[in-house]
Task: structure prediction
Amino acid sequence: MNTMCSITPFPSPTMNLQFLEEILYDLPPLEGVFLHWHTHGETATTAGIVSLLARRKQLLGSTTLSGASIQLLYECAVDSLRSLPGEEPHSPWLSRPLHARILRHRSSLSAAGTQVLLPPGVLVQKTVSVTLAGTLMLCSGVGLQRLTRQHLRTIAATLALRGRAVKQCTINPFTYNPVETFGMQPGMVSPFLHPCRPAGLTALVLLPWPQQCEVQGREVAISLSLWESLALPLSCLRHLVLSYARRAYPAVRIIELESEGTTHAHTDTITSQSLPAHLTVESASGPQETDKAGHYPGVAKLGSLNRLHHDENGQANDAGRA
Result:
């Protein structure tokens, strides 16, 4: 029996998104936060930035990523952009910093609705929750691609689920409210979950996308809120998702599906206990070696993210007492 308590009401079509959008635009913009990190480094988070991100989450709730998620996403995105091979001539557009990559658009509670709001050449990141024989996972891809029966068979085989698991599949199950389970509104659910709040996932599945989209220089829009997306080169998405998942929820199994014409999948599970010094692990840019503390090079520790987490909780508690 599902004993999950309802904390946030399930979003309804009458939800006052226009009011929340007005609140968003009354807050200092994320561009300023990203510019500060670009200028002073990803770990140069001031008390003012911590307070701003916490208040943003307090006021906007599940319509925005948490401050901890935004900071970790920024750090992983910078690292993923650095992992891309250099190309000549070097285009200022392709090399623009993250504060110049934020897109603003109307809100939508579906990936299809968000896609029509994005500029040409930018694909929405589409993520759905799936249960296979009661096993909860997130499946993430780009554009409006669908989860196929072949995908489900491959996932079930990879997780060693019984043969009839595919017939017991539910996409976006009602038993897992996206607000309660992932802390996000429908239409912006993504792998960029709060790093301090496990969502009970068994696996994260990366769906394949056409290689031609990367060759064409397409970008992918990652939801920061219902009104903001971060546009990144599609070619760095795999590295970004893997890097974020390994830091935010390292015990969750990662399944990478190959192209539609194959039935194979690559899997990866990394727990905090399995990261000894100088362990080499597979990453999107090839083998990546950790430092003596077991961290990835160029990536900050989670201390500042924990401060954001505690500050968000503190402001929420203060608001409740008020």
Remarks:
- The longest helix spans residues 303-321.
- Residues 110 and 187 are 4 Å apart (CA to CA).
- The chain has one domain: 17-321.
